Amino acid sequence: MATTAPAHPVHPVHPVDEVPPVRHLAAFGLQHVLAMYAGAVAVPLIVGGAMKLSPADLAYLITADLLVCGIATLIQCVGFWRFGVRLPIMQGCTFAAVTPMVLIGTTGGGLPAIYGSVIVAGLAIVLLAPVFGRLLRFFPPLVTGTVILIIGVSLLPVAGNWAAGGVGAKDFGAPKNLALAGFVLAVVLGVQRFAPPFLSRIAVLVGIAVGLGVAVPFGFTDFGGVGDADWVGISTPFHFGTPTFHASAIVSMLVVALVTMTETTGDLIAVGEMTDRKVEPRTLADGLRADGLSTVLGGVFNTFPYTAFAQNVGLVGMTRVRSRWVVATAGGILVLLGLLPKLGAVVAAVPAPVLGGAGLVMFGTVAASGLRTLAEVDFKGNDNLTVVAVSVAVGMLPVGVPTIYAKFPDWFQTVMNSGISAGCLTAIVLNLLFNHLPGKAGSAGAAAEPKAASV
Predict the structure, then answer these.
(1) Which residues contact residue 243 at a Cβ distance below 8 angstroms, ignoring those fewer than 6 apart?
(2) Would the pLDDT of 453 be above 60?
(3) Is residue 18 packed enough to be buried (19+ CB in 10 Å), middle (13-18) or exposed (0-12)?
(4) DSSP string covering 13-56, please?
(5) Number of other CB atoms surrounding residue 430 within 10 Å
(6) Segment holding 313, helix H or strand E
(7) 70-99: pLDDT as tens digits
(8) DSSP 3-state assignment of 303?
(9) Phi and psi of 83, rounded to 5°?
């Protein structure tokens, strides 16, 4: 008996575009917020503290940051026209801008000068995005695997500092802090291994919740700041004055823009690998354009340059939840936290060691994903091992020895103090040197990387 084929074949929805049930969206989204919250508020705290701002102004910077973080995340995940990569990418303030912004703020015109340079840098990123999009052919698996590995390993000291109590804590490194972090890590691993599928996917959220439940009675944290926080806080444009435009400030922020574009490229490629939706030149340009727009909004709404947040790349890989709508939900939660400072104060009460325990497994997952990508590369009869070795070494230098470039000019420090950008640039240059210069074209290295053959 003959069977008739269906007239319209069903195209399954890609996991990136799936919309989970509402209760799952809320739990997965909150998990992403908790994973990035400490990093998200660190930049305004550091810059505002260096400028000796009042507690009220500091609180304003933090709520403005959370609001624009949320808007930036929604632009990146949901997207409109040619803005947004439409992958599960969280956005946050880039640490690459901290040192230049502190210098501008303390010596070159205060917050208005910072915001003027941030707006110009954001516009530059929007204009340069198509150029960076065409550079994707410089990122074969040899380079992308190395960069993803460097992203993961360079984040591990962040988790280590959290586990020890947080940088600047009076009891930094106390055994009780590391014990709490170890307990949270054990809970995360236990839930991931033994819990039902849904719970295993929110293992980090469960670990943080259980860790917080243990931390409160043992005096690791208190919720005193919640009572002091306002119920509603609206960030108005140019709250700290009309932006001013200083040439030296703009030049330093343009260098930061190039660094953040390099970092974002690595993060977008990493998430593309993890979600089985490869990043193409056009989508990379769309993602970078969203970064630029978010950075312009940052300058207008009293906050700082934005970039893809590497912390959350690890969470995507670990939970295997690939829906961009989950991260869009996280963006919505961040907008709420920015508009309701009291809610933000509740989240801020999560102690650093709790985040440290969860961070160890998340950031380690990023490094492991890099190794998985490198497993596709042929290392026999070529110099690919040298490319990986030297790139990782250069990328780890500023992580292991933070003051190694202290005697160099500011622009050099901005580029090289980011292990991600230093390692990425090294990997690109060495791949070209060993696999694409005349005389190497027929090597096994070149043959193993068809994506790079058009260079």
Answers:
(1) 112, 113, 115, 116, 119, 299
(2) no
(3) middle
(4) PPTTT----HHHHHHHHHHHHHHHHHHHHHHHHHHHHHTT--HH
(5) 22
(6) helix 310-319
(7) 999 999 999 888 999 999 999 988 877 877
(8) coil
(9) -115, 125
3-state secondary structure of 290: helix
- Supply the DSSP string of 198-235, one letter for each residue: HHHHTHHHHHHHHHHHHHTTTTS---HHHHHS-S---P
32: nearest Cα among 73, 62, 65: 73
Binned at pLDDT 50, 70 and 90, residue 254 comes out as confident
Cα–Cα distance for residue pair 76/86, rounded to 1 Å? 6
Nearest to 162 by CA among 151, 172, 148, 176: 172
Estimate the crossing angle of helix 55-77 against helix 341-348, to 10 degrees. 90
Secondary structure class of 441 (helix, strand, coil): coil
Distance, in Å, from the CA atom of 141 to the CA atom of 347, rounded to the nearest integer, reads 38
Question: Alpha helices of 51-174 — where are they, by DSSP H?
Answer: 55-77, 98-107, 110-133, 141-163
CA of residue 133 relative to chain centroid, distance: 19
- Among 354, 343, 262, 352, smallest CA distance to 310 is for 262
pLDDT value of residue 227: 62
Confidence of residue 450 (pLDDT cuts 50, 70, 90): very low
CA–CA dist 287, 453 (Å, integer): 24
Task: Indicate the residue type of 241.
Answer: G
441 compared with 277, residue with greater pLDDT: 277
Query: How far is Cα 78 from Cα 331, in angstroms, rounded to an integer?
Result: 10
Using only C-alpha atoms, what is the Rg of the chain? 22
**Cα 291 to Cα 441: distance, rounded to the nearest angstrom:** 36
Spatial separation of the C-alpha atoms in residues 422 and 326, rounded to whole Å: 31
Distance CA 364, CA 351 (A): 21
Q: Kindly report the pTM of this predicted structure.
A: 0.78
Distances (CA, A) of 301 to 55, 62, 97, 355: 18, 11, 17, 28
Residue linked to tokens 């694409």 = 436
Rounded alpha-carbon distances, angstroms, from residue 230 to 60, 141, 290, 346, 350: 11, 49, 31, 12, 19
Helix (H, G, I), strand (E, B) or coil at 63: helix
Q: What is the DSSP letter of 97?
A: G
The DSSP code for 448 is T
Q: Give the span between the Cα atoms of 357 and 178, in whole angstroms.
A: 8
Give the range among 19-28, 35-44, 81-90, 115-124 with minimum mean pLDDT.
Answer: 35-44
Distance (Å, whole) CA 124 – CA 288: 11
CB distance 414 to 255 below 8 Å: yes
